[in-house]
Design goal:
Radius of gyration: 20 Å
Number of domains: 2
CATH architecture of the largest domain: Alpha-Beta Complex
Distance between the termini: 38 Å
Shape: elongated
CATH topology of the largest domain: Aspartate Aminotransferase, domain 1
């Protein structure tokens, strides 16, 4: 049966065999519906995202949207970066790895489905959990337009800016980052918005 994601599988070259096998494994569970989101095959349960297939230069992966809630007794899950709060990947560098882990993959998929069915949610960090760098605090205090624009941003956009500014170790670098995105914030755009 052809789905929205079928053309994705038809067009692949680098991870074609790996993607095809991952698709087959996921589709053994008839509860999941195949969709196409963010330019990748995404598998949902009653419209809720459960797992997505994606590829990178050195590996392909299954990303579990609520992976942080999975037990991961086999220690297969990878947190992409320290800032990813909920998603976790199982990474593969070749077809043999997928074949070897097929039963484990099915187990993780079934557990992810049960988590989605239960309605369990990931408790994410609040914006208030991210410190406002002193350099940014001073600017917000002196510039009411910037303070108003920053406050009007979505919590996710605020967190992204605060995290990015805080990653700089030196005051000079923090100030440079803040000034680089000064007009972006005034325009009520997120860090990655054009």
């Amino acid at each position: 049966m052809r789905t929205k994601a079928s053309f994705f599988f038809d067009q692949q070259s680098k991870w074609k065999d790996e993607f095809d096998l991952l698709r087959k494994i996921i589709r053994t569970n008839s509860l999941l519906e195949e969709d196409f989101k963010w330019k990748h095959p995404c598998y949902t349960l009653h419209g809720k995202n459960v797992v997505i297939i994606h590829g990178f230069k050195h590996y392909c992966a299954l990303l579990f949207f609520k992976g942080a809630l999975l037990k991961d007794s086999r220690r297969l899950l990878v947190q992409q970066t320290e800032n990813v709060q909920s998603g976790r990947q199982i990474r593969f560098s070749n077809l043999a790895e997928i074949k070897k882990l097929e039963n484990n993959i099915l187990s993780y998929i079934n557990e992810a489905i049960e988590i989605e069915r239960s309605g369990e949610k990931i408790v994410k960090k609040e914006t208030s959990d991210y410190p406002i760098p002193e350099e940014f605090q001073l600017l917000l205090k002196d510039d009411s337009n910037l303070a108003k624009a920053f406050k009007s941003l979505t919590p996710g956009r605020q967190r992204a800016y605060l995290f990015f500014f805080n990653q700089a170790k030196q005051t000079k670098t923090k100030q440079a980052r803040i000034m680089k995105y000064y007009h972006h914030i005034l325009a009520k755009k997120g860090l990655d918005d054009k």
